[in-house]
Amino acid sequence: MSGDFLYPDYEIIRDFSRCTVCHDCERQCANGCHSYNEKLGRMVADNAKCVVCHRCVSMCPVSALKIVKTDHTFKQNANWTGDVIGDIYRQAGSGGVLLSSMGNPQKYPIYWDKILINASQVTNPSIDPLREPMETKLFLGGRPDRVEYDEKGQLKDNLPVHLSTQVPVLFSAMSYGSISRNAHEALAKAAAALGTYYNTGEGGLHEDFYQYADNTIVQVASGRFGVHKRYLDAGAAIEIKMGQGAKPGIGGHLPGSKITEDVSRTRMIPEGTDAISPAPHHDIYSIEDLRQLVYSLKEATSYKKPIIVKIAAVHNVAAIASGIARSGADIIAIDGFRGGTGAAPSRIRDNVGIPIELALAAVDERLRQEGIRNNVSIIAGGSIRSSADIVKAIALGADAVYIATAALLALGCHLCRACQLGRCNWGIATQRPDLTARLDPDAGARRLVNLVTAWNHEIKEMMGGMGINSIEALRGNRLMLRGIGLTEKELSILGIKHAGE
Ligand code: SF4
Ligand code: SF4
Ligand code: SF4
């Protein structure tokens, strides 16, 4: 029982019949959980320090370790659960805002799991993706409403600036500082190998990564960290971050401990100082203001770069997206409330925002009704977990998806949700050189390429099953979806029928 009256949620169990006292667990744990007790003559563990990252479990050479959820419990009830009681003890002890990382873990509906995908049977036969061409290449940006020809009958090739990706998956914004240099390098290399894009987040672009510029989206956030002309010119596209799904309505905060010399140079802020980006952009209070920034960035880059505006999924997301589509932006990125983060106040993460599935369907429908859907492309993000989620997102109206948590899992993240501590034992959410070195960027890039390649195969199989051979033909094709166990209202917002209809 600690000073906060808290019993640890998890216990480290060691099989002493196997343990050879090799001390590997002690070396692997940056949280200082394991040590050798001279008096007892054996290894001991401090459960209270454990964040359940499973590094020691994975690295123990004789599989002597496991982490189990404690069976100790409060005398809780449906209202005063153990988590609620524990949080009150923590805040009564610290007087501070509760911080957490990664996505909203609460028991809200996950609509992806209540949507089913269609398949052809007799008419409109399915397509075999192994024997027939299937197109997953796509273009992101505005497009004309109709095909036009010039007086010589030639197709008019006057498309607005756009991004071109070989797969409908892009790596979402994660800043250098919130994640390690090696994690960033893995993402950059994977994006280049896959013919897609990774995103700098609000941390600027490290000098070593300009070589991946063709596959880089550079972000301009409210703090404007690391933003300069060369940075803007380097990106294949520029993303204005208005909001983030994990923490809508508030800014970002990277603790000074993560602002190492290299991070400080990249962000153009002093070493060791907290990097706090304000909640609003101080020059944006209306769509007209946003339009000014969109066109300032276009002007600064000679109208050669598509501009993405990223927003969090919130209650009036459809109206907000309508304004963005009229602001001159080329792409809208919508981030649902299950989207990950390196650090967010727990109450914001768990209570603010709405699911990406509802937000996406509402935005696509509104833009179609207003006849401006082709002004912009839509990238949906915020807990995309599999190729099936991607197919459902595209059929609901997305052009492509952003992934971040899934990408970090591919790099070895064990979702311990303790990124804010800066001691990631897997070398991802840390700036400690000894921990960063644990992540090999080349091996990480290979795993990312494997993941997205596997998903792309599965997407082609599902498309083939529906008799669709092009990702463009899947976009907004809600006839391919049915709901299961959803209310009339939910079905109406999603714009899909119930299974059996
Ligand atoms: S890594 Fe495994 S074998 Fe080595 S000290 Fe820890 S528990 Fe024992
Ligand atoms: S924090 Fe991670 S490495 Fe340390 S004891 Fe817990 S599971 Fe093992
Ligand atoms: S990135 Fe690291 S610290 Fe963050 S959840 Fe994953 S394993 Fe934990």
Describe how the helices and strands are arranged:
Layout: E1 10-14, H1 24-28, E2 34-37, E3 42-45, H2 55-59, E4 65-69, H3 82-94, E5 99-100, E6 115-117, E7 138-140, E8 163-165, E9 169-171, H4 181-194, E10 198-199, E11 216-220, H5 229-234, E12 237-241, E13 252-254, H6 261-267, E14 275-277, H7 287-300, E15 307-312, H8 317-325, E16 331-335, E17 344-345, H9 346-351, H10 356-369, E18 377-381, H11 387-396, E19 400-403, H12 405-410, H13 433-436, H14 441-466, H15 471-474, E20 481-483, H16 488-494, E21 497-498
Parallel strand pairs: 9-19, 10-11, 11-12, 12-15, 15-16, 16-18, 18-19, 20-21
Antiparallel strand pairs: 1-4, 2-3, 5-17, 6-20, 7-8, 13-14
Helix pairs in contact: 4-14, 8-10, 11-14
The structure holds iron/sulfur cluster (SF4) (3 copies).
Comma- or semicolon-separated keywords:
single chain; 501 residues; alpha/beta; Alpha-Beta Plaits; TIM Barrel; 2 domains; eight-stranded parallel β-sheet; three-stranded mixed β-sheet; 30% helix; 15% strand; binds iron/sulfur cluster
Determine the CATH superfamily of the largest domain.
Aldolase class I
- Total number of distinct structural domains: 2
Average predicted confidence as pLDDT: 94
Q: Write the CATH architecture name of the largest domain.
A: Alpha-Beta Barrel
| Strand residues, percent | 15-25%
Helix content: 25-40%
Side-by-side strand order of the widest sheet: 9-19-18-16-15-12-11-10
Molecules bound to protein = iron/sulfur cluster
Q: What's the total number of strands?
A: 21
Distance between the amino and carboxyl termini? 56 Å
Structural class: alpha/beta
- Overall geometry comes to globular
The fold-level CATH name of the largest domain is TIM Barrel
User: Class of the largest domain, according to the CATH hierarchy?
Assistant: Alpha Beta
Q: Largest sheet, described in full? A: 8 strands, parallel
Radius of gyration over all CA atoms, rounded: 24 Å
Instruction: List the uncertain runs.
Output: none
Q: Tally the helices.
A: 16
